[in-house]
UniProtKB/TrEMBL annotation:
It is found in: Endoplasmic reticulum membrane; Microsome membrane. The keyword Protease does not apply. This is Flavin-containing monooxygenase. One of its GO terms (cellular component) is endoplasmic reticulum membrane. Its cofactor is Mg(2+); FAD. It comes from Acinonyx jubatus (Cheetah). The lineage of its organism: Eukaryota, Metazoa, Chordata, Craniata, Vertebrata. It catalyses: trimethylamine + NADPH + O2 = trimethylamine N-oxide + NADP(+) + H2O; hypotaurine + NADH + O2 + H(+) = taurine + NAD(+) + H2O; N,N-dimethylaniline + NADPH + O2 + H(+) = N,N-dimethylaniline N-oxide + NADP(+) + H2O; hypotaurine + NADPH + O2 + H(+) = taurine + NADP(+) + H2O. Its main location: endoplasmic reticulum. Pfam families: FMO-like.
Amino acid sequence: MAKKVAVIGAGVSGLVSLKCCVDEGLEPTCFERTEDIGGLWRFKENVEDGRASIYQSVISNTSKEMSCFSDFPMPEDFPNFLHNSKLLEYFRIFARKFDLLKYIQFQTTVLSVRKHPDFSSSGQWEVVTESNGKKQSAVFDAVMVCSGHHILPHIPLDSFPGIEKFKGQYFHSRQYKHPEGFEGKHILVIGLGNSASDIAVELSKKAAQVFISTRHGSWVMSRISKDGYPWDMVLHTRFISMLRNVLSQFKIIRKWMMEQQMNRWFNHADYGLQPQNKHLMKEPVVNDDLPSRILYGAIKVKSRVIELTETSAIFEDGTVEEDIDVIVFATGYTFSFPFLEESLVKVKDNTISLYKYMFPPHLEKSTLACIGFIQPLGSIFPTVELQARWATRVFKGLCTLPSEKTMMADTIKRNEKRIDLLPALCGQRGNWMGQ
């Protein structure tokens, strides 16, 4: 008898998880709280609670050649970098091709996922859902959490003394949809991730002046690389990967080469963008227009905000910008699993205690996996496909995980590295969004 798997969410991770379940002969049921598939990539004019939100102009930061699923190339007539509506179209074609919609229960919210009383022997889960005001409970042999992490906005107001006095408008980047309504205004964007850069560039075409405040700087790349090819087709090759591995033993040479590569387009120090730790290999910002908008003066790069007044912002370098009308907090998101018991997936300092960003190490049975809670240097779509393929094979018993001790040691080591990256990652929506 096929094992039953609950898939939470019908975004990209949920769709590919459904396909992997079917490929392995498992019996999936997907619970999607909204009326349609697509998750993050389905633009809506209004922000909805419990659902990811993007702005209208979002373009993918990774090319179609590097972003498609392994057995399903994108249509030839699609451009190399895709508007969110094109990506959604691809996911619709994918879902129809593999007949995935029949496994999805729409407008169904997962209220709780709890261990079955005999979990230690069966590994089963009790999943409680609600649809049209009616609650239902069902038992599943495994659970795949595909709910994403661009839902709960992180706005660290305590880090901005004087915000309570500020008379202008302020909001999280999650609320931003398009530049209309910001004509002639002085706007401060806080953060230097992909969302912050996109929003700053877009607003600079309408606003009187845009300021972008960064604590640590960031490497900025163009979508267009050598000979006009997409950046990820040039940088993500087997040869480059091998070279990185070889050079990892020669840190000084590797650091020098990385800095030369990142400064090839423009000198980041001259633009006030050079990362504080310039040798830290973190996710770069992908934006074709940011350097030129800085050259125009339409965007001015500022240091960290140390205080706000009724109408102005005071920065760490002692400068003050007056007559600020709007503040956009592009300060990232907080991991949240409201339907899981706190002990199942532990979140501390916005890092999650998961083996390989997927499996809770302390479970007696490896029957719960989180898919898509990872930030790769490249496209997330093939990455989540690999995660889903691995998870379903673990559920089926074809793969086994290491001991709890080994998994915990690996998880702690990875999280220590990630904590070093947190200031840099804060505000980034992921290099696979443009988004």
